[in-house]
Specification:
single chain; alpha/beta; CBS-domain; 4-stranded mixed β-sheet; CBS_dom
């Protein structure tokens, strides 16, 4: 049985809600990631969203906003999704498909321990599983 912890990549990094988007972009570069979970009030105990590199470009830069003045919390929206480290792969796929998301934080004992991305799925799942996932996540509603 393959579980979330088996397919995630470790080293997921939080961005506090008060941090600016230019700092978020620096963290993404330093950690070679395209998404950062956003923590409430600077703590690492409650996730209020996920910030992606695309969010920075589309919702800040392309709108003419200054990334040194816009915070991660300003772009946090919706209900953050996550998965328990012990969840089976089928649960991971279902969560990502149902919410049409491409990155999923992995939590163990209420602590962020990793992230599952499209690349992780591609490395660990069968072609049929990936095709089914992609069809549901990328399909137009």
């Amino acid at each position: 049985m393959t579980i979330a912890k088996d397919i995630m990549h470790t080293g997921a990094t939080w961005i506090p809600a008060h941090e600016t988007l230019d700092r978020a972009a620096q963290l993404m570069r330093e950690h070679n990631v395209g998404a950062l979970p956003i923590s409430a009030n600077g703590g690492q105990d409650r996730m209020i969203g996920i910030l992606t590199d695309r969010d920075i470009v589309i919702d800040c830069v392309a709108m003419g906003r200054d990334p040194s003045k816009v915070t991660a919390g300003d772009l946090a929206q919706g209900t953050p999704r996550w998965i328990d480290a012990g969840a089976e792969v089928e649960e991971v796929l279902e969560e990502m498909q149902n919410h049409r998301i491409r990155r999923l934080p992995v939590v163990e004992n209420k602590k962020l321990i990793g992230m599952i991305s499209e690349a992780d799925l591609a490395q660990h799942l069968s072609d049929d599983q990936i095709a089914g996932w992609a069809e549901k996540v990328y399909a137009h509603s």
